[in-house]
Write a structure and sequence with these properties.
about 300 residues, alpha/beta, Arc Repressor Mutant, subunit A, D-Maltodextrin-Binding Protein, domain 2, 2 domains, seven-stranded mixed β-sheet, two-stranded antiparallel ribbon, 11 helices, about 40% helix, DNA-binding transcription factor activity, LysR_subst-bd, HTH lysR-type domain-containing protein, WH-like_DNA-bd_sf
Length: about 300
């Protein structure tokens, strides 16, 4: 019996279905069925009774599945202990983030560094779609991302914690005709000039407003450039409600954050994600506690 076979029979027992277990583990139903049959032949017993109503463990199968669960949990705990041992004195945090969190992360880092000057940081900003694609491939400690629960559930080996449900807004400067509005409609924004993050993902809004190339003045990942353009022109910037809420630009009125009237149609869930095999180290959890404290002040 190997690790994959143990994982297969445990998932089939939990799902009471070979096809559902196969879908969960991203393999074919035939491959799952062959794996179980091979294990049954190897052990000389029948692990599952199969019928049109699904699969149920046999008496012998329940014993094997119970032992497999114990072994899988032991392996998981062992991997966790090894990781924590290797990282008990971690001095480097590698963080992947969507642009929405950058300002609050930077504020948190400045304070955290002053109190923990033996820790170094690496902050990488990416489009939310790229974050999901790349998080499993790189040695990141955590990622902060807007995503649907369904998107995250499709990812293997990722744990996630819900942070906030927010909305898409616009940022405008005093030269904007929208500056004194309490809210705006998407219809009113259709002919507006835009500045945009390269790594942003506002597909729903852009699909409805359908901006042409002439409307997009600048695409950049330079926050300072985009904010300066918003401040000194009539251009608008799509962002999430909390992104720069506590920045000096917003607090002194140079930039105003205005909600979309249709905000109920564009709810966005924000998440902390990390690897199941890696979990959160003590340093990472302390940093996240500091970040969440600052985050709550912004919402």
């Amino acid at each position: 019996m190997n690790f994959e076979q143990m994982e297969h029979i445990v998932n089939v027992a939990n799902e009471m279905s070979i096809s559902k277990a196969a879908e969960k583990l991203f393999i074919s139903s035939s491959g799952m069925s062959q794996s179980i049959t091979q294990l049954e032949n190897e052990l000389g017993i029948k692990i599952f009774n199969r019928s049109n109503q699904g699969v149920t463990p046999t008496f012998e199968g329940k014993i094997v599945i119970s032992k497999a669960m114990t072994l899988l949990n032991t392996i998981k705990e062992l991997n966790k202990e090894i990781f924590e041992l290797k990282n008990s004195n971690q001095t480097h945090l590698k963080i992947l983030t969507a642009p929405s969190f950058t300002f609050i992360l930077q504020e948190t880092m400045v304070k955290f560094i002053s109190e923990n000057n033996d820790i170094t940081y690496e902050l990488i900003e990416q489009n939310p779609t790229e974050i999901i694609q790349n998080f499993n491939k790189e040695n990141y400690d955590i990622a902060l991302i807007p995503a649907s629960l369904e998107e995250l559930k499709r990812e293997k080996n990722i744990l996630f914690e819900h942070i906030h449900t927010g909305h898409i807004c616009i940022a405008v400067g005093k030269n904007s005709p929208f500056y004194h509005h309490d809210y705006v409609t998407l219809c009113a924004l259709k002919d507006s000039k835009l500045v945009m993050y390269n790594s942003s993902d506002y597909k729903k809004v852009l699909k409805l407003t359908k901006p042409n190339l002439n409307q997009v003045l600048v695409r950049s990942n330079s926050n300072s450039l985009l904010y300066k353009l918003v401040t000194e022109s009539q251009a608008i910037l799509y962002l999430h409600d909390f992104s720069i809420k506590k920045s000096s630009m917003v607090m002194n009125g140079d930039i105003k954050i205005i909600p979309l009237k249709e905000e109920k149609h564009f709810p966005v869930d924000f998440w902390l994600i990390y690897l199941e095999t890696k979990n959160l180290t003590k340093v990472t959890r302390e940093f996240m506690n500091a970040f969440l404290y600052n985050f709550k002040k912004c919402i």
